[in-house]
């Protein structure tokens, strides 16, 4: 995929875009629904245009700042497109939450995504905001879905690496407790059903 053309000599801006273009493409691709995948380049170029406007208004920025601006712009463009197409998010979760749900897999080698995958899909959609805090979900998406190193993810989220790890561990612990409680409740119901249907001796 080519970078959007430029008619001026803003070498630093083009260099920043080039450094993060592949990462941005992967980020956007993961957030597009199947029927939107053909719009990948359109969303990329829209995000680049938004980034250029910010760059020209505020001046040069670091790579971390640039990717944050681009990702926020791309996410906003996706949401706006869905509203224009009368296809808004009909579920009570954000674009990133949808990505997290789509990557939940009980067979995943990732401990968090595997734990999420062991929860019934419809229940996960309904209960995700109660299972994990918004910040925990942001951390898990950045680290476990987008695959960013801890330092990079922490910088993008504006927290320390220790804070990022604490939130991820807290989220994983909460998911495991939920799964344990759900299993215990299911076992109790099965035992009660057996007790209720047992024949009474004459």
Automatic annotation (TrEMBL):
Q: What is this protein called?
A: RNA polymerase sigma-70 region 4 domain-containing protein
Which organism is this entry from?
Actinophytocola xanthii
Q: Which domain of life is it from?
A: Bacteria
InterPro entries for the chain: RNA_pol_sigma70_r4, RNA_pol_sigma_r3/r4-like, WH-like_DNA-bd_sf
For this protein, the record's SUPFAM superfamilies field holds: Sigma3 and sigma4 domains of RNA polymerase sigma factors (SSF88659)
Q: Coiled coil where? A: none
The record places domain RNA polymerase sigma-70 region at: 132-176
């Amino acid at each position: 995929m080519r970078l959007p053309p430029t008619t001026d000599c803003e070498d630093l801006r083009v260099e920043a875009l080039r450094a993060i273009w592949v990462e941005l493409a992967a980020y956007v691709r993961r957030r597009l629904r199947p029927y939107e995948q053909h719009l990948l380049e359109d969303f990329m170029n829209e995000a680049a245009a938004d980034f250029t406007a910010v760059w020209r208004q505020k001046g040069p920025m670091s790579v971390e700042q640039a990717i944050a601006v681009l990702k926020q712009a791309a996410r906003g463009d996706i949401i706006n497109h869905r509203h224009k197409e009368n296809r808004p998010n009909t579920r009570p979760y954000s674009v990133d939450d949808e990505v997290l749900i789509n990557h939940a897999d009980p067979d995943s080698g990732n401990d968090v995504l595997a734990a999420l995958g062991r929860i019934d899909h419809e229940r996960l959609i309904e209960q995700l905001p109660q299972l994990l805090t918004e910040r925990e979900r942001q951390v898990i998406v950045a680290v476990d879905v987008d695959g960013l190193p801890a330092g990079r993810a922490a910088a993008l989220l504006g927290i320390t690496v220790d804070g990022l790890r604490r939130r991820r561990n807290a989220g994983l612990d909460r998911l495991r407790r939920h799964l344990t409680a759900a299993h215990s409740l299911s076992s109790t119901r099965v035992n009660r059903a057996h007790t209720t249907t047992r024949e009474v001796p004459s």
